[in-house]
Design goal:
Elements (H helix, E strand, L loop, with lengths): L1 H15 L1 H38 L2 E5 L5 H12 L4 E7 L1 H11 L4 H9 L7 E6 L5 H8 L5 E5 L2 H43 L1 H9 L4 H29 L1 H7 L13 H26 L7
Antiparallel strand pairs: 1-3, 1-4, 2-3
Helix pairs in contact: 1-9, 2-7, 2-9, 2-10, 2-11, 7-9, 7-11, 9-11
């Protein structure tokens, strides 16, 4: 009976301050929509970086005066680097075959190279452990005797990694700034509710109601506001998760990125929990200075 009374009081508070409650719910909705949306964006960028991790190669072009024994020794040494996941040797003959495939529509260019195949050097194709490791590998390769040139898609990789770092920083600021705003709005909602019921609260205190008995409906009110806003945010982001994932994707294949259901469920539950915690924190701040023991 007592629990039913506490819930009824919380619902009554929500009904009395519809506009203020609505603004608090919207604040939580906006905050957590941006937070959850940013999480999905981070996932999509991580998938892009994962593709780069699988396909990025640092190419070390070898001098013609290196013997097969020298190349084998060099290959074993590079394979031992912690940033290197794998390494493959490409001979001059394999380089010529690759050139024919890449420029199959430019026969005149192929003819020029076939007249002197030696202009295509042998090379080592090095696969980094992570895309961002390419710069460390490149810096170590350029000072090794016998390597005449090092090539990597440095600008594209740098842009992708930098974009991921910027998004991570942005998501932190989103949580801090909008989270604080939502807490303040919920706190104001609770303060207004306390002020509107000040006479009723005074009577309850006079007849022996404890402070926690009076506080619980306000805590419930804040939690409900946080949970409703969070649930709406999860539903909104879930509905457009595919579009969000493709927003910063570098893939040209439409629909290549599909956000896994388990990812959405796991992070959606975290967002709902965070919304409830935001409401609880807002309630605590709203009652600060009131209803003290």
């Amino acid at each position: 009976m007592r629990l039913q009374y506490l819930f009824s009081q919380a619902i009554s508070n929500l009904r009395r301050n519809v506009l203020v409650v609505f603004s608090a719910v919207v604040a939580v909705l906006v905050m957590l929509t941006l937070v959850f949306g940013t999480i999905v964006l981070r996932w999509s960028i991580d998938q892009d970086i994962g593709r780069w991790d699988d396909n990025v190669r640092v190419i070390a072009f070898l001098s013609d005066d290196l013997t097969l024994e020298d190349i084998d020794t060099l290959q074993q040494d590079i394979q031992g680097w912690e940033q290197v996941d794998g390494i493959e040797y490409f001979s001059k003959a394999e380089a010529l075959e690759e050139f024919r495939e890449l420029f199959a529509d430019q026969q005149s260019l192929i003819d020029v190279v076939e007249e002197d195949p030696s202009i295509l050097p042998a090379s080592l194709r090095i696969r980094p452990v992570a895309a961002a490791d390419y710069s460390t590998i490149t810096d170590r390769l350029v000072v090794i005797p016998g390597i005449r040139e090092v090539s990597a898609a440095d600008e594209a990789i740098d842009a992708l990694v930098a974009r991921s770092n910027r998004l991570r920083t942005f998501s932190v600021w989103i949580v801090v700034v909008l989270g604080a705003s939502a807490v303040v709005l919920i706190a104001n909602t609770i303060r207004i509710a306390i002020f509107a019921r000040r006479d009723e609260i005074g009577i309850m205190k006079l007849v022996g109601a404890g402070n926690w008995f009076v506080r619980i409906p306000f805590f419930l009110e804040g939690i409900v506001e946080g949970l409703v806003g969070a649930a709406l945010a999860v539903a909104l982001v879930w509905a457009v998760s595919g579009s969000i994932a493709e927003l910063f994707s570098t893939s040209t294949d439409s629909g290549a990125l599909t956000v896994p259901i388990d990812f959405l469920i796991r992070n959606g539950l975290l967002i709902v929990g965070f919304g409830g915690a935001t409401g609880l924190m807002g309630s605590a701040f709203g009652m600060w200075g009131f209803l003290r023991d």
